[in-house]
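Q: How would the C-alpha cells look for this protein?
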Amino acid sequence: MGMHERFRLDGKVAVVTGGGRGIGRGIALAMAECGADVVAVARRQNDVDTVAREIEARGQRGLGISADVLDFESIPRALDRVVAEFGRLDIMVNNAGGNLDRRTWSLPTIALEKFNEQLALNMTSKFWGAQQAAVRMADGGRIINIISIAAHRPSPGFGVYSAANMGMISMTRTLAVELAPRKITVNCIAPGVVVTDMLKETMHITDEQAHAAFDKAIPLGRTGTPEDCAAAAVFFASPAAEWITGQFIDVAGGQPT
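A: Here is the predicted structure in C-alpha cell form.
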C-alpha cells in the first residue's frame, strides 16, 4: 500500500452522530470523499436525508437515520440497522453534543437536572456510542470522540460541558487500552472555535460578530471550519493511524489551552 493510499477509507462503513449539520456533516462528507460509505445520525430526519444525498453525490452509499443520542435505546437500534443494511461497521464518530437549550449555566447556579442533562449529552452518550459500536465491530475498527478545547481550561458558563469533555479524554484513554487487544483504536479530536449554528444560537451572535470576536484571538488568524475537523477525523479513521490510540488532538489554530 502506497503512502497516499494509507489515507483512503475504501470499503469501510462509518457512522457519524450529530451528522446532520456543522462539524458532523463535514466529517461525514469527508469520509465519503475518501471512499467510505457513511451513515449520518441526528434528531432531524430532513437534515440527515440531505447529508445522505450529498454522500451519494460523492459516489458512496449514504443513509440518514433519525435518532436521539439521549434515548439510550436508539443508538443500539441504529447500529443494528447499519450492520443489517451495510454488512459491517468499521468507524464510529461520536460527535453529537453541546447544549440543548442554547444557554450558558454557571456552576454555582446550575440545577442538578440541567447538570445531569449536559453530562449525559456530552459524556454518557459518547461512552454509550463507543461501547455499542465496539461490540458490533470486527477487529481493527476505529472510534473517534469529538470533544472541545474547553476540556483544557476554565470555561465560565460551560462548566459541565468542559468537565464532560475532560472526562471523555480520560475515558478515551482507558477504552483505547481495553480495546487494544482487538486492534480497535480510540482517539479524540478537540476543535477550537468553529462557527456553527449551535455556537451562534448559544452566544446570540451572527457570523460576522463571531468572526470579529474570535478571529483575532486565534494565532493562525481565523476560526475553524468543519473541514478542518474532518481532516483530523479522516486521519484517525485511516490505515495511516493504525498505531495511534488513546490520543487527542487539538484542531484549534494554535489557540492556547
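Strands lie at 13-17, 37-42, 62-66, 91-94, 142-146, 185-191, 248-251.

The mean pLDDT is 95.

Upvote if useful.
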